[in-house]
Amino acid sequence: MKQINIGLLGIGNVGGGTYQILNNNHDVISERTDADIRVTKALTHNLNKKRKFEIPSDILTTNADEILNDSNINIIVEALGGIEPASTYMLKAMQSGKHVVTANKAAVAANYEKLMTVANENNVMLLTEACVAGAIPALASIQTSLQGNRFYEVSGILNGTTNYIMSKMYNEGLAYADVLKDAQAKGFAEADPTDDVMGYDIANKLSILVALTFNQYIHPKDIPTVGITNITKEDIDIAKTNGTKIKLIGSAILSETGKLSCSVKPVNINCTHPLFSVDNEFNAVYLKGDAFGELMYYGKGAGPLPTGSAVVGDIISIINNIWR
Questions:
Q1: pLDDT digits (tens, 9 = 90+) for 247-261
Q2: HEC profile for the chain?
Q3: End-to-end CA distance of the chain
Q4: Over the stretch 109-160, which tens digit does the pLDDT of each residue have?
Q5: What residues act catalytically?
Q6: How does pLDDT run across 273-298, given as a tens digit for each residue?
Q7: Quick check: 9 and 41 in contact, CB under 8 A?
Q8: What is the distance of C-alpha 297 from the center of its chain?
Q9: Backbone Cα Rg of the chain
Q10: Cβ 19 vs Cβ 8: under 8 Å
Q11: Given this model, what pLDDT does residue 49 score?
Q12: Reported pTM
């Protein structure tokens, strides 16, 4: 059985969830891949930080170069978040011949073309399933089983924080500010929720989805984006009266004339649409194609283990493509 060594850049929520799955399900994964997958180094800002899971102290480092320059590491998992230094680390890893898996939608969306070019130039794989909708395997499907289709639309509920807020406002008649505080208390929203509530997080994810479905790269800053901060209780009441729900939707639609229109904005969803029933912190990706018609992928879009599940799936995909 071959040993595949993993270097984790970041051991917070995503990195920690990835480590837990690789550790807890080691026997199952080994049986399925015929590989002994080991995390041999993990980057952290604080060696002494108390964590929710046990991780051997001898694999921890505060120096990213100890991971990036380690010739024994086969796959890098980038789980730092933010555009930099994450983008630079991924580029350096691929230039060194290492495959990369990332959950960092901001870095991928901001530098999509450069990252993919470097991956191709160095004949390595860069997989990004965990960047969009957590455990939902939408990107893998788009890139494999659905590749024979012409896509007409990709849209969805791509942020659990805003969907939770909108669901609570609709179901319990609460005001935006009160629901936001509740979401922060439960850990669904960050202390600074700007990226979520202003729609920037969704714009990052939509940029990646558009690149894969329509083979066009659109920078997140070029996607018209409106958040939910101006949605009032009165808006919700009107939607109820009309039999609709207001959802923050990321959408890309190809017109009959071939024009691609992208947006992130609150939308009144009719009760007959599949996205109508997607509530609370759940995500969904909705697709239209010429052969398959309509499809919707639904599930948990965030959290250490759901996102870690997508990361581990990408690790296994690399192993199956390269070493089997």
A1: 999 999 999 999 999
A2: CEEEEEEEECCCHHHHHHHHHHHHCHHHHHHHHCEEEEEEEEECCCCCCCCCCCCCHHHEECCCHHHHCCCCCCEEEECCCCCCCHHHHHHHHHHCCCEEEECCHHHHHHCHHHHHHHHHHCCCCEECHHHCCCCCCHHHHHHCCCCCCCEEEEEEECCHHHHHHHHHHHHHCCCHHHHHHHHHHCCCCCCCCHHHHCCHHHHHHHHHHHHHHHCCCCCHHHCCECCCCCCCHHHHHHHHHCCEEEEEEEEEEECCCCCEEEEEEEEEEECCCHHHHCCCCEEEEEEEECCCEEEEEEEECCCHHHHHHHHHHHHHHHHHHHCC
A3: 11
A4: 999 999 999 999 999 999 999 999 999 999 999 999 999 999 999 999 999 9
A5: 205
A6: 999 999 999 999 999 999 999 999 99
A7: no
A8: 14
A9: 20
A10: yes
A11: 84
A12: 0.95
Say if residue 279 is exposed, middle or buried (CB neighbours under 10 Å; 0-12, 13-18, 19+): middle
**How many other β-carbons are positioned within 10 Å of the β-carbon of residue 69?**
12
User: Residue 40's pLDDT is what?
Assistant: 98
Using alpha carbons, select from 233, 230, 229, 247 the residue that is nearest to residue 286. 247
Interval 225-237: pLDDT, tens: 999 999 999 999 9
The one-letter amino acid at 269? I
CB 223 within 8 A of CB 262: yes
Calpha distance 49→216 (Å, rounded):
42
- What number of other Cβ atoms are within 10 A of residue 68's Cβ? 21
Residue 302 pLDDT grade (very low, low, confident, very high; cuts 50, 70, 90) = confident
> 229, 301, 226: which is closest to 262 by C-alpha?
226
How far apart CA 2 and CA 318 sit, in angstroms, is: 14
Contact by Cβ (8 Å): 275, 269: yes
Peptide bond just before 85 cis, omega within 30 deg = yes
